[in-house]
Design goal:
Blueprint (H helix, E strand, L loop, with lengths): L6 H38 L10 E6 L2 E6 L5 E3 L3 H7 L2 H9 L4
Antiparallel strand pairs: 1-2, 2-3
The structure holds zinc ion (ZN).
Zinc ion binds next to loops.
């Protein structure tokens, strides 16, 4: 003969079940977010944030600057603004003369 589980036990098992499913759901969402991030990166990597066209990367004295091939916007990676800021005036002019046609 089986013993009927007490109310407390039923509550406990229901809560365990809920926690288990919640964890699985959170894991699913985390994976989805990662996939979405990966997809977005693939879609946007080396693309202009404004017009979506390809960026051209130039390297000047170790500073890598990305320039849009369409709208001519100029984009800097982390730390590059400070590096550009530290260039003396002639270096700065030379850097931007690279872009001039
Ligand atoms: Zn652009």
């Amino acid at each position: 003969m089986q013993r009927k589980p007490s109310e407390k036990e039923e509550e406990y098992f229901a809560r365990m079940e809920f926690e288990k499913r919640k964890k699985a759901e959170e894991e699913k969402q985390r994976k989805l977010a990662e996939e979405e991030k990966k997809k977005l990166k693939e879609l946007h990597y080396m693309r202009c944030p404004k017009c979506g066209m390809g960026l051209i990367e130039i390297d000047y004295r170790g500073i890598r600057i990305d320039k849009c091939s369409a709208c001519e916007g100029v984009w800097l990676d982390a730390g590059e603004l400070e590096a550009v800021w530290k260039l003396e005036k002639t270096g700065f002019d030379k850097l931007f003369s690279v872009f001039k046609r």
